[in-house]
Amino acid sequence: MTLVVDDQLLSLILRGGRLPGQLDSSGPIFTTGQWYVRLCQAALGVADRPGTLSGPFAALPPHRRAQALAAVLELPDEIGLISLRELAPVIAQLRARHQLNILSIEAVAAAVQLGATVALSTMSPRLEAALAAEGRPVEIVA
After folding, report:
1. CA–CA distances in Å: residue 22 to residues 18, 19, 114, 120, 127
2. Closest CA to 105 of 75, 65, 136, 64
3. Which of 1, 72, 106, 134 has its CA 20 to 30 A from that of 115?
């Protein structure tokens, strides 16, 4: 199964963690541009006030933090990222059906384009409803 992971799950993967067992990680793993940007901003701002995304990086020992930051700054080949060149027309079409922010509509577009399941680290009722309306499954990973 192809997965589109949110920024927190992408962070987990790039810090060397594994996705929970209910997710079949044998297939391709993708993220979105917006989720990737948010993770980059958080990881590079680790010296500032740690938050949900930056805190796990701050908690790593210095050597592991350096490895994780390198993975964030140069996304490994096994993590896919669809170009907005491909997604922009899909996003525009989906906007007519769903009133979502750019972060969420990009996730729906990526799932539709890839035929993927979206893995979220937290519930997002509007995003989940849009994914269901588009026939795309969602998994909430607590």
Report:
1. 11, 8, 20, 13, 20
2. 136
3. 72
Closest CA to 119 of 84, 79, 75, 91: 79
Q: Tokens 């170009």, residue?
A: 83
Per residue in 79-103, pLDDT (tens digit) is 999 999 999 999 999 999 999 999 9
Tokens of 102: 């750019």
Distance between CA 110 and CA 24 in Å, rounded? 18
Q: Between 102 and 23, where is the model more confident?
A: 102
Which of 27-46 are b and which e, b meaning 16 or more Cβ less than 10 Å from the residue's Cβ? eebbbbbbbbebbbebbeeb
Domains delineated in the chain: 3-140 (3.40.50.1010)
pTM beyond 0.90: the answer is yes
Per the listing, tokens 């927190």 go with 8
